[in-house]
Design brief:
By secondary structure, this protein is mostly beta strands. The chain has strands at residues 23-26, 35-42, 47-52, 57-62, 73-78, 81-82, 86-90, 95-97, 99-104, 107-112, 118-119. The protein has a 6-stranded antiparallel beta sheet, with no helix packed on it. A hairpin with a 5-residue loop joins strand 10 and strand 11. The protein starts with 22 loop residues before the first strand and ends in an 8-residue tail after the last strand.
Amino acid sequence: MPSKVKYPKPAKTPKCHVRSGDKVIVLSGSNRGKTGTIIKVFPADQRALVDGDAAVYETRHVKANPQANVEGGRIKRLRPMHISKLALLDPTTNKAAKIRHERTDKGMTRVAKKSNHRFEAAAPTKA
């Protein structure tokens, strides 16, 4: 029996409320309340890689392969987190922010509903 059920991916990639480079706070799970920065977003899977206090790691047991020059042992790597567990961190209140979208000259901007803080689109970085 498979450990994880794989659903078919949607024909159109769904929108995400978070982007890479955003500071986020975890809403549920064992890391609830911890903050981190998004490294990469996988919109088709509705998941994101989060670094910082909120980072979740998984351990892979790798067999040594001298031909490919691969060392054996346990390797820790970041595990993607579902984006429904993440909320943007409002820097003025240091709490989770609900956002609305406003149209400006530069395009759409995300704005926190309570504090009216503007989350300007950061320049995308290639990793």
